[in-house]
Amino acid sequence: MSDDADACGRERHHAGDDSFARRTIVVRNELPKAGLKLPREVYGLLVDTLFRDSRSLVIGTATTIVAVAVTAAKTQSLALAACCVAILVVISARLVLIKRYLADPAPVATEASAARWELGYSIGAGLHCLVLGIWCLLCLTTTTDGFAQLLSAVVTIGCAAAIPGRNFGRVGIASIQIGGLFLPLCLGWILQANWYYAFLTLVTLPFVAALRIMCQRLQATLLDALTANNKIGVLAERFDAALNNMPHGLCMVDRETRVQVCNPRLTEILGLPRTTDLQNLTFSDLLAKAGATVSLRTSGPDPLTIEPMLHAREGGSIVIEIADGRSATLTLQPMSNGGTVIVAEDITLRRETEDKILRLARYDTVTDISNRAFFVEEMTGRVAAADQAGTHCALHFIDLDRFKSVNDTLGHAYGDLLLREVSDRLKGLLGSDDLLGRFGGDEFVVLQSSVADEQQASALSSAMIEALTQPFLLLGKRIKIGASIGVALTPIGRIDVDLLMQRADLALYRAKTAGRGRWFFFDAGMDQEVLRRRTLELDLTTAFQTDAFELFYQPLVTLETMRIGTCEALLRWRHPERGLISPTVFIPMAEEMGLITELGARVLHLACVACRTWPNETRVAVNLSAVQFQSDIVETIQDALWSAGLPANRLEVEITETVLLQNTSSIRTALQRIQDLGVTVVLDDFGTGHSSLSYLHNFPLQKIKLDRSFLEDVGKSERSLIILDGVGALIQRLGLAVVIEGIETDDQLAFVRGMKHIDEVQGFLLGRPVPRDEIISVLERSALGSRQSDRLDLLKAIACAS
Ligand code: C2E
Ligand code: CA
Ligand code: CA
């Protein structure tokens, strides 16, 4: 037999076996087969029956001793007197054994100890019966006293009849006892050598057999009872363990909804002490004790109380709110006996997490106001409600001016702070029915509910601009921004949220292009503007496919010699209906449409090819878009030089500040690699953006082009002279060349010539952008003059003519 299973097929548990809970223990209800061992607990209980209640033993033995003593006295037989003494000794020994057994705190705790007690009992009981049997034998063989013989036989048979009543639990012991009694008795009868006595022996045999059968039957009945009891005990233990260790609360109620079973987890979930008296409580009483109320029915029909649900025996689940703020779900499952099982789950944490997720999905993390998705969802409802009420809603699209520069210069921490402050200021201006949201970046939106007319909407717009124009104080820093707003009103009788947003967006676009810090209402003309832009986008796609672009070239003149050192390539789009279109219109579009990388590569190639044909080693300057740096611009430049066969030192690339604002280290590397090729890197439009001086030494640049805005106040104020001269000197001191663009007048030229720190000049006065065919003649003709002044006159004349 294996170690893990005993004779009954029952698995034993090993201490620390973690699979215990998962094992199914089958306790068999039928009798163990002959020769198989009993379960330990049952065996122990059987042994225990032998020692319990020794009253019958004492009474029986007392009668026997008296009977033996009477026979000894009547017959004056010493042998019978000895029997009397022997019985006294045996019974004393048995009583001592029983006493010791009863004193043992766990006599049948182990199989071995039970077996030891059983053995002791067997010996005592066996000897007891044997002495009685011998008493009968002696009465029959050593005396002729009929009374003694009759008495001994009657007492012995009487004792035998009592055996099943006392020792049925162990059939083996009963058999020994029966044997001990009857074998000497029958032997005595046989030794009488009398047929009638022999017949007595025959009559006794069925009686003996019947005694054995009685013992067996009684043992079987006892065993059944013990086994059933044992099974109930095990089941109860398991049920208890399951109830006490389950993560859910569980309660069983009867058909009157009175609590029958309830685990500690349920009281814990309800926030009640473990010791709560549940006697005669209905489940509703229990909820009332916990101060719990039903808040939501997740299935089944109304109403929101639990009692009708329990009585209706329909099952379902509900959510309850407990007095301490937690919540739980109760799942009701009717049982066939009319009662209900209620399973409770604490959902406080899950709810909190769900709320958190919902918040994240609905609100902007920086400002804690609605994000785009939630704003649009809410707006749809409000617009429909306003439409029904016959009023308008106004949608304000707000774009912060100069926010980007705060973010770039002071960092994102300041940027976030600013956004929060903006959101707070806006909140302060809104009514309780108005909605505020952030669509990302520096775009805020306001939906103004119940607007009677445009005036009401424009009053809010101007108040918002006014509020956002006031300086902000962030961590001790005074920051001034502003805002542009586009407003659109919902038309009555038409609910189209997309259209409303499109209109507000168009109005905002107009506000921004009109010079910022202003608000604009949507008007129908703006739709036309969009239509025009859409058409232009389509046309640009076609132009890209048919290559309808041309390069014009504009000279850059070295101030000292008045010779053209470089020509800047400027892209033109020859539109079939609208003529030449400026790059300021279509370059941003090409950037948005993702065409610029390919277009820029074409420009580089064409410019390099053109430059190859130019006299006097004249260089070409090509403008690069920031977007081009997102792909491998160095390789594109190399390809252009290689395919045109142009030496790298004849190419200049012009970048703007936007390039430097991108990922600094990769941009620096790209610029360095360009410079390593031998190409000159020029920073264009210096003075229009941040004009951060840190760029000048943080990036590998060789030339700086000052924007023409530097020349705006020339001749009017001394300040512009000081600034221009100072900036030029600084740049030169860093070892970089200085160009100034936008020279349109003789005064401006004279002013620039008067300064020491400008290397090159560019402008309509000295040369306009001309097509590829014309630039060669410009280059040739302008070089004809032998003196500097001649060459200047020539340049001016040519520029004037073109
Ligand atoms: P930019 O690089 O600053 O080019 C100078 C712009 O100023 C040119 O305008 C030029 O025609 C104009 N300009 C030159 N001298 C004067 C002057 O004396 N007075 C005035 N008022 N304007 C003058 P254009 O050709 O319209 O180009 C505008 C911008 O488009 C360029 O500004 C450049 O940023 C961009 N661009 C032009 N071609 C390309 C190109 O191939 N690729 C890229 N990415 N951008 C280009
Ligand atoms: Ca340029
Ligand atoms: Ca420029």
Describe the structure.
The relative contact order is 0.04. Residues 1-36 have low confidence and may be disordered. Helix 14 (412-429) packs antiparallel against helix 15 (454-469). With 802 residues, the chain is α/β, with parallel strands linked by helices. It is elongated. It starts with 39 loop residues before the first helix and ends with a helix. The longest helix has 51 residues, at 195-245. The chain contains 27 helices and 23 strands. The strands form four sheets. An eight-stranded mixed barrel has the order 14-15-17-18-19-20-21-22, surrounded by six helices. Bound molecules: ligand C2E and calcium ion (2 copies). One calcium ion (CA) binds next to strand 19. The site of one calcium ion has 5 residues, from strand 19.
Provide a brief overview of the structure.
The protein is 54% helix and 17% strand.
Distance between the termini: 115 Å
- Which percent band covers the strand fraction? 15-25%
Q: Helical stretch count?
A: 27
Radius of gyration: 56 Å
Strand count: 23
Q: Which outline best applies?
A: elongated
Bound molecules: ligand C2E, calcium ion
Low-pLDDT regions: 1-36
Write out the strand line-up for the largest beta sheet, numbering strands in chain order.
Answer: 14-15-17-18-19-20-21-22
Q: Which structural class do you get from the secondary structure elements?
A: alpha/beta
